[in-house]
Write a structure and sequence with these properties.
heterodimer; A: 264 residues; Elongation Factor Tu (Ef-tu), domain 3; Rossmann fold; 2 domains; 6-stranded antiparallel sheet; 11 strands; 25% helix; 32% strand; B: 196 residues; mainly beta; 3 helices; 7% helix; 31% strand
């Protein structure tokens, strides 16, 4: 460790000591299967993984036979001390790495991963943080991955903080973790789930498909008066729109944490 | 540690020498921010440099009256994307520090919205950093840090604080926002100083 790094770590507060240090690890694919028509769920057994907080991400590095490498960041759908790490990867049309991860990778393959990464877009139970404010999660498409990790951590901890997820998705077939989300909604520490379908709704759905509106957002999130902590994850366009509306609805900008996906 | 990934061939074999290790070239301009985009009217905008002995400040009109540089540079984000040959206009930190006297060697940049990032002073001077207000011939978009952002292109782009409002001199290096939340204290893309 360099002197600078030592000084930096020393300067950090106790809150950050809860987040494990990152490093390179060998991950063996334990299971790979379709999550949606356009995405796959990868379960990785990561050698030496120190565990991770809900909401963290990791880097995946792929190496071609001639030494060419490609590295991308992915949010982690799981949390806790386990060395079994779950990813859900959306296939980007012109992607270099995501089509490989979604279409090619199978059980037994080995990947290099670096992590866990990020200490800001994370959630920990009230028993650890003392923060009892309600939590509002807002997901656009595959942005649900780190928020699902938070919702599952919330249920696993039997945390009594009110938890609500607003999830904007193209069609019913595109919902990630559909069964698990249903289970979480029934858990003893329930998740309140609101879905918005932008292209096609289930039969009998009360509203027509379409992009989320400011009014729909207001109706489906914990009101600003209850001072919720808000986590927003999705495309840049989605995050910008939602975060602007939240501020307009009176939410404290300092209580809104955002993460965006994008690029290759 | 590195091994071949079964079945992976990758897309490109033409490695551009301007691309640091672990980076991928993009043509769009991705966004990385930790919270909502603040709205700042240039009528209310102010930029300050605070030292151990006092404060220097510029309002928007005073700032625009300073010597303005055209900057053509590559930028590298820690989330693995790079853009080559980006065009900016802004005021060099050399210009801003012309009349600033300080014994301190470290800087904390502060932004509207509360973001902070730390950079050693010698990495901001000698033509290495600007406060930029124009990108690709247009006023800088709020989501990219407008009306003005720090531009320190030789370090990972989180050091180029969006919505910058001032610099505070420090006698020792201290971690800023991302530096406390998992990113490297220094952030040289050529050394892959990404994380702790």
């Amino acid at each position: 460790m360099s002197d600078a790094t030592t000084a930096q770590v020393t300067a950090l507060g106790a809150a950050l000591r809860a987040v494990p240090r990152s490093g390179w690890h060998v991950a063996t694919v334990a299971d790979a299967h379709r999550e949606t028509p356009n995405a796959s769920r990868l379960e990785l057994d990561v050698d030496g993984w120190p565990g991770n907080a809900a909401g963290q991400h990791l880097d995946v590095r792929l190496t071609a036979p001639d030494g060419y490498t490609a590295t991308r960041s992915y949010s982690i759908a799981s949390s806790g001390s386990s060395s079994r790490v779950v990813l859900a990867v959306d296939k980007l049309p012109d992607g270099e790495v995501s089509p490989f991860l979604v279409d090619e990778v199978r059980a037994g393959d080995m990947l290099e991963v670096h992590g866990p990464l990020g200490a800001f877009f994370v959630w920990a139970p009230a028993a650890e943080t003392g923060d009892m404010r309600p939590v509002q999660l807002i997901a656009g498409g595959s942005g649900v991955v780190p928020l699902f990790a938070m919702a599952r951590a919330h249920a696993a901890a039997d945390d009594t903080t009110p938890f609500r997820l607003l999830y904007s998705v193209r069609t019913p077939d595109d919902v990630y973790f559909a069964d698990e989300l249903d289970d979480l909604a029934e858990a003893s520490a329930p998740l309140r789930l609101d879905l918005v379908y932008t292209r096609r709704t289930p039969d009998g759905w009360p509203t027509a498909p379409g992009r989320i509106t400011r009014e729909a957002l207001e109706a489906a999130v914990v009101p600003a008066a209850e001072r919720p902590r808000v986590y927003v994850c999705g495309s840049t366009g989605f995050v910008e729109l939602v975060a602007d509306w939240l501020v307009g609805l009176g939410h404290d900008p300092r209580s809104i944490r955002t993460e965006r996906y994008g690029g290759t | 540690m590195s091994f071949i990934t079964r079945g992976f061939s990758g897309r490109s074999r033409e490695r551009d020498d301007r691309l640091p290790p672990g980076q991928t070239l993009v043509s769009d301009f991705p966004v990385l921010s930790a919270g909502p985009t603040p709205e700042i009217d240039t009528a209310d905008w102010e930029f300050t440099i605070r030292t151990e002995s006092g404060m220097h400040s510029w309002n928007w009109d005073e700032f625009m009256a300073l010597k303005i540089d055209d900057v053509d540079t590559d930028i590298h984000c820690v989330t693995h994307w790079s853009k080559l040959g980006t065009r900016w206009r802004g005021v060099s930190l050399d210009t801003l520090f012309e009349d600033v006297e300080t014994e301190y060697d470290y800087v904390m940049a502060h932004s509207y919205g509360g973001y902070t990032t730390n950079v050693p002073l010698d990495e901001l001077l000698d033509g290495k950093a600007w406060v930029a207000f124009e990108f690709d011939g247009e006023p800088l978009d709020p989501e990219h840090g407008g009306p003005a952002r720090l531009l320190v292109p030789h370090l990972y782009f989180w050091k180029s604080a969006k919505w910058v409002r001032g610099l505070v001199m420090m006698d020792q290096d201290e971690p800023g926002f991302w530096e406390q939340n998992g990113y490297h204290i220094h952030g040289d893309p050529w050394k892959e100083e990404r994380y702790w």
